[in-house]
Amino acid sequence: DEVTVFAAASLKTALDEIAAAWKAAGGGEVRVSYAGSSALARQIEQGAPADVFVSADLDWMAHVRDKGLVRAGTEVRLLGNAIVLVAPAGSQGPVDLADPLALAAALADGRLAMANVDAVPAGRYGKAALTALGLWRSVEAKVAQADNVRAALMLVSRGEAPLGIVYATDAAADPGVRIVARFPADSHPPIVYPAAVLAGAASPDARDLRRFSARRTPARSSRRGASSGWTSRSQTERLGRGHRDRSSR
Amino acid sequence: MGRLAGFELSAEEWTAVALSLRVAAVATLFSLPPAVGVALLLARGRFPGHAILNGLVHLPLILPPVVTGYLLLIGFGRRGVIGAALAEHLGLVFSFRWTGAALAAAVMGFPLLVRAIRLAIEAVDRRLEDAAATLGAGPGIVFATVTLPLILPGILAGAILAFAKAMGEFGATITFVSNIPGETQTLASAIYTFMQVPGGDAGVLRLTLVSIAISMAALVASELLSRRIARRIETR
Amino acid sequence: MGRLAGFELSAEEWTAVALSLRVAAVATLFSLPPAVGVALLLARGRFPGHAILNGLVHLPLILPPVVTGYLLLIGFGRRGVIGAALAEHLGLVFSFRWTGAALAAAVMGFPLLVRAIRLAIEAVDRRLEDAAATLGAGPGIVFATVTLPLILPGILAGAILAFAKAMGEFGATITFVSNIPGETQTLASAIYTFMQVPGGDAGVLRLTLVSIAISMAALVASELLSRRIARRIETR
Amino acid sequence: MTIEIAVRHAVPGFTLDVDLRLGNGLNALFGPSGSGKTTLVNVIAGLRRPGAGRIVVDGTVLHDSAAGLDLPRHRRRIGYVFQEARLFPHLDVRRNLLYGRWLRGQGGGRAEIDAVVEMLGIGSLLARRPSGLSGGEKQRVAIGRALLSAPRLLLMDEPLTALDEARKAEIMPYLERLRDESRVPILYVSHSVAEVGRLAGEMVALSGGRVVAHGPTAEVMAGLDILPGGVTAEAGVMLDAEVVGTEPEWQLTLLDTAAGRLAVPSGDLPAAGRVRLRIRARDVMLALDPPVGVSALNSLPGVVEAVVATGDSAVLLRLRCNTAVVFARVTRRSAANLDLVPGRRVHAVLKSVALDRAMISL
Amino acid sequence: MTIEIAVRHAVPGFTLDVDLRLGNGLNALFGPSGSGKTTLVNVIAGLRRPGAGRIVVDGTVLHDSAAGLDLPRHRRRIGYVFQEARLFPHLDVRRNLLYGRWLRGQGGGRAEIDAVVEMLGIGSLLARRPSGLSGGEKQRVAIGRALLSAPRLLLMDEPLTALDEARKAEIMPYLERLRDESRVPILYVSHSVAEVGRLAGEMVALSGGRVVAHGPTAEVMAGLDILPGGVTAEAGVMLDAEVVGTEPEWQLTLLDTAAGRLAVPSGDLPAAGRVRLRIRARDVMLALDPPVGVSALNSLPGVVEAVVATGDSAVLLRLRCNTAVVFARVTRRSAANLDLVPGRRVHAVLKSVALDRAMISL
Ligand SMILES: Nc1ncnc2c1ncn2[C@@H]1O[C@H](COP(=O)(O)OP(=O)(O)OP(=O)(O)O)[C@@H](O)[C@H]1O
Ligand SMILES: Nc1ncnc2c1ncn2[C@@H]1O[C@H](COP(=O)(O)OP(=O)(O)OP(=O)(O)O)[C@@H](O)[C@H]1O
Ligand code: MOO
Ligand SMILES: [Mg+2]
Ligand SMILES: [Mg+2]
């Protein structure tokens, strides 16, 4: 039987691998529709024929759950991630996030590339972290908000912006950037990608796929292993503990 | 999906190519008749709602495509007012089907199609239509035998714009019918997906080249056809 | 961004409105002369690269807007081949500036503009141009005194399409110059931002209505103007 | 069949205001440039809606402003040869020709089609598109298109202007036959007195949007001097004539008219029956005695009735020859020399070659 | 100033192949519909590039295929009145008129502009747009536009067809003055023998793309019988004439020609100087004795030289009156009756009113 997964577009690499592994392990076909979490959530609301929803953040999952569209007790935190400060590959030294002036100084008159700080999860995590670290005010006016993390990453790797905030997974995959700082995990809401079987799921395999996926996070399965930047399932569970599902914006 | 470099397409990508072609062709063909009708109304009609109709037609251009997609989702989705009615009475389902992708592409290309046809209609020498009328042709026949042949190059120009737009459109499509491989994943959405992951550039490049090749072929074909038609109706 | 409901706009939203207007207007005005030139070449020219030029012009329509934005970034960014040269020699910087948003909008609207003008040029009765030539008008003067006045309605039609497109365009814009409030955050990007947030619908609605209102006003104005011109050059 | 037209149509700076009742046959519409001929014809065809008025053709009301009636143009069955050809650029000549016929479901009539094509000399153009045709070729195709559409009224707006004399000479007899045999009434706009005189039974002269003269062509022609922009060279009378014999060895035909017997070149004239003959005042020479030893074959005795008009150097005299009126234009000096006052007996001398085919209508 | 045109231009189904050398003055281009007149004129104006050939106007090479020379059309300074008006729809009549003048930097010349506007009767149209003009009005504006563009060669393709006789009568003297005073050579396409005869010094007859006759108008006209689609009614001669006096009380002017003295209506003729007079064969009556008691004022003694052509019912005779040739068309019967064989002494009788202004060129 075929399982249809609605997944946040940034998960493509990871989920393509999981789908392949699932099939190799004797599972059925998996169709993944990659799009923005917001679009997917609205589509599920409008009766999309999806079996599993994988959101880029907890908010849109909560939105779907609040509408009663999630099958109770099927929600898991599939993957975890971290945010990092990146600079173009050839640039100088690390940036000390503890120093209240260092970030602004490193930017000089350049822009800080981020995903949209109001709308896109990566942007919101970044803004929360900067705020928690007391740096937001010093850089607020210099932020260039991209459509998504990938676009922010590209701004840095192309040298348009001297610094950017992206997922660790993105930084790891792009040789055009280097990580110049890591944000403390407690400086922002947990970065988790929740997955759930949807109330209207037609495929009985959906439940199994979800469980399978939760076991086989790319951190362990991938040949590149931990270097892909994903946090393991255990880390993910740990990170999520103690936070409300709906992060404050 | 695997293969990120190399220029052979994966099976899934071939599917996307085929789907894009089907979506673009169906979107263009099915929107032609209403576009001609609306263009006629706008070019010739003098009625109270003229400005409103004109505005409506341009709406998909004015709105960010995701908003258009969202409106389509609300209107033509399974739960949408129009979508539900169409599904019930005509068995016509758009939501999460390739037909929905075609609808989205048709809506997005509609203003381009209408404007091209309208310009062509406004360039028609109405004295020729008068002449046809004195020879016994009623309005419908005048249109079919005089106006339509004369605006064919304009229709073709509009159609090629709409087709190209349909090949490139993804904002409204992905918002309305999502990005389901084999069903609603067009070339443009596949390109978008590649753009979202690190290292997807090779995939982007590959699919973009395919998309360009197809549209170019359509463009060249339309130019040749249009030139043939134009030669026939030259007034020089 | 704050206020999600209520129909008054926040200061930031007013800024986005003003910026959108500026971007759309500049994009449309500055792309007019090259569009007329390219349309002339395509309509009248018989040269080897004809099909290629035609394809290039349609490219922004064929490509998903984010790809266009990406290409703009590569070409016209701070580090881009053209961008670096322009910045150095003309002091013209696009990256992260409203000028970049205007460039993106201009590029996206270019195929629409060119096609409308080309259709108009192809509808011009060349015998009138011949007549002007026998009266002593060289090619440039023929164009300025005969062709141009006759294609004005087509130029206007193309301009309004390009303007509307500029109001709705965001894919290429946000990819190229990102979304900096007060600098590159246009209405469309603001709407998009609201779309990404659960509960942002009221904000989407509000800004969408503003966008529609502006474009409608432009549309109505262009219709009136176009009708006045058309009345003058009626050949009936 | 009659045509009733009573319309008022105003555009800024010009008002058409006519009230006409035309009979069958070919009616000429005559008048200077800008006098409203095309406007009137457009109103009849339904291409312009008159401000007010009523148009009835053969009992069918085409338009009646008072009754709010307006027959759509395509139902009027009016053939219209436009002042500019208006050929369909996307159809070849053959399809242009057959357009109206095809719409009226009259596919057949090959013989008629062939006859029209032959008469117009457009057989070699049938597969061509209008764009490459010469001015006169376009005009001929336009004439053919209207003729073949089986109209119940034919409007022709200066149809022969771009044609050479030879071609005109071929088309005119066709129009005469059309007028007489198929009994399609024709409203014929022309600046050419020769055409009008030859073809038209009735003639309407317009000026400034108003009818300034209307009546049998002969009568109106007689008064042409007084018309605005007068065409003095063409003034004359039209006489009914009966073919009473021929002189085959000389290729002459003898006509009996109310003015007397006349010999004219036979050409394609029938050997019997009735024709009409136009005699231009300028072609009439007056002699006090019957001329002898001159080449003119025709000499009609008559009496000067009146001096109709006096110009700078010429006078127009009205003669009565037998029971008919004939006009003669002579110099004032001759009129004085010969004492051409009312009551004077004279002989109207006419060269046969001046009474050529252009002056005779069948 | 001379015009040399030697071109070959082929389109599918039609080939123009001419080799002409035209002198100053007004040259008429004459020929049936489709004979290539417009094509030739277009080639001269540069609107069609000939397949091969050479065009030289007044020493300036406009085109030379062999040398690869082709003067751009806008540098040719050729005024062109098109067969269809081609007015600029977006300009009002005034701007249409002044378009060429403005381009040539000749803003001035108010008097000339006023004269042209007056002559064409378009004063009241100046603020109008072409769309609402009548056919003849458009044509007049087009004539004005070409005249006012200060051309060094004027091409006129059937410029007067849509005009009434009165208007033609006003425009023709203007063209005569243009031809004589401003010495702008004119190539004039027309189907009207009357126009050509009056205006043209030389005449070219085309048929099927080739020159079938070319020479002084009088000579070509004399041979018109043999032209394809002959225009027998208009055959005749042109005579140079000198104004030798007037009879003011009769408004007659006396002309001395090589054929003898003739009285013609004065009209606007000058009181002295040279004019040209056309005498149509059909207007000449022959008498064996000098006529008395007739209204015709003119009688030229002469001798029959030859029977030029014989038709069904008429013959064309060449007479010698004094030193000039005059043609006369009479019926075959009269020719037999009067024994009009070569050597026969006759009198050519001509009505003065037949020698009206249309027959005289200045
Ligand atoms: N593009 C073309 N293809 C084929 N034949 C053509 C083309 N252009 C012109 N002709 C033919 O060349 C001939 C000459 O045309 P042209 O317009 O010179 O005639 P014209 O002497 O001006 O006739 P008219 O008196 O009717 O205006 C015509 O028979 C016409 O059909
Ligand atoms: N829309 C209009 N506005 C103003 N005047 C107009 C309009 N349409 C026609 N006229 C005028 O009406 C008059 C009559 O025009 P019409 O075309 O009937 O003339 P016509 O008798 O056919 O002349 P022609 O012999 O020159 O073709 C003209 O003076 C013309 O300028
Ligand atoms: O209008 Mo778009 O930005 O081509 O999908
Ligand atoms: Mg008219
Ligand atoms: Mg011609």
TrEMBL record, chains B, C:
A Gene Ontology molecular function term of the record: molybdate ion transmembrane transporter activity
Gene3D superfamilies: MetI-like
Annotated Pfam families: BPD_transp_1
Segments forming domain ABC transmembrane type-1: 17-225
Entry's transmembrane regions: 20-43, 55-76, 96-114, 135-163, 204-226
Alphabetical list of NCBIfam families matching this protein: modB_ABC, PRK09421.1
Protein family according to the UniProt entry: Belongs to the binding-protein-dependent transport system permease family. CysTW subfamily.
Function: Part of the binding-protein-dependent transport system for molybdenum; probably responsible for the translocation of the substrate across the membrane.
Record's protein name: Molybdenum transport system permease
Organism: Methylobrevis pamukkalensis
Species lineage: Bacteria, Pseudomonadati, Pseudomonadota, Alphaproteobacteria, Hyphomicrobiales
TrEMBL record, chains D, E:
Broad class of enzyme this protein falls into: hydrolase
Ranges where the Mop domain occurs: 293-359
GO cellular component: membrane
A GO molecular-function annotation: molybdate ion transmembrane transporter activity
Domain ABC transporter, first and last residues per copy: 1-233
Coiled coil: none
Keywords (A to Z) from UniProt: ATP-binding, Cell inner membrane, Cell membrane, Hydrolase, Membrane, Molybdenum, Nucleotide-binding, Translocase, Transport
SUPFAM superfamilies, sorted: MOP-like, P-loop containing nucleoside triphosphate hydrolases
Enzyme nomenclature, EC number: 3.6.3.25
Pfam families listed in its UniProt record: ABC_tran, TOBE
NCBIfam families (UniProt xref): modC_ABC (TIGR02142)
Family: Belongs to the ABC transporter superfamily.
Name assigned to this protein: Sulfate/thiosulfate import ATP-binding protein CysA
Annotated gene: cysA
